[in-house]
Amino acid sequence: MRVPFLNGRAVERAVSPERAVEAVRDAFVAYAQGEWTMPPKVYVPAYPAGDFRAMPALGGGHALLKWVTSFPGNPARGLPTVMGVVLLSDAANGAPRALLDAAAVTALRTGAAAVLAAETVGRADAETAAVIGAGVNGRATARTFIARGREPLIWDVYSERAAGVANELGCRVAQSRHDALAADLLVTVTPAREALIVPGTLRPGQHVSLMGADGPGKAEIAVEELARVRVFCDDWEQASHNGDLVHAVEAGVVGRDDVTELGAVLAGSAEGRRSSEEATAFDSTGLAIQDLAIALAALEGLDELDEDVPSLEF
Ligand SMILES: NC(=O)c1ccc[n+]([C@@H]2O[C@H](COP(=O)([O-])OP(=O)(O)OC[C@H]3O[C@@H](n4cnc5c(N)ncnc54)[C@H](O)[C@@H]3O)[C@@H](O)[C@H]2O)c1
Q: Does the annotation count 218 as an active-site position?
């Protein structure tokens, strides 16, 4: 049995950001409707350096396991924060169908979820967009905004990182963090441990997709600010244990009834934005069903790649 291996370049070539948004949207709906399933993500801590995550999902006739890292100190050592592998198997007989680079799959689905949430619960007449954090997943988010017809401002604590992404993608660096924070559709994709979004930052009608805080100790928004706005998340169980939400839940200021899952909004079973004055936040910790969506799209796109990908013999 020969199983294709898609490295990062092959994944990026097989799945466009537009296709990623479509695939991730369908996955959120299938999960909300109980057609796709996802056992809880398992964290394997290796602190203080970082952690490993094992993320399984089942849907679309396939099963997936992503084995992936978050090692925030890695860029300083010339290594990516997020690395690992995705194994896609046939759910009818268990046969492996593809191995894929986990960083590329993660970046595509993270950018897709950030922008999808912004488009779904952000104001329909939103004009400006910004991405704070110009790392691997911030770049992917900016790329997705651009594919969806927006020109995001980029900001990073390291100005050369913001400039690098802006030059590569043909968008602009924000003049200041303050300018980036003012965008109608804001996405934060940082490993920050101190809130970037302090109390009073978000104005009426503004939306933020909080993508960075996906494990212990991380926080992109202050508890008071999260308690003040309308909150959406990717998955209550996961986000309330490992996302920005955990701090607000522990403080007792946000509970299950205060938070709406994005999939329910997309499936039409929960209310999205209620008024143009509402400030909204989407808390993401990243779901294996999103990875499954991208892995399936990559397998589909494989036939159209004008290059051979290597395969492994089992
Ligand atoms: N929710 C999800 O689905 C999801 C998916 C992937 C990664 N993540 C998380 O997102 C974060 C970023 O991941 P990555 O792979 O892009 O990391 P990365 O290391 O490639 O990039 C992070 C960037 O954020 C910048 N940064 C750090 N603190 C900042 C601050 N306070 N303000 C502005 N910029 C700041 C860094 O300079 C760096 O350029 C990590 O915490 C990671 O675990 C979440």
A: no
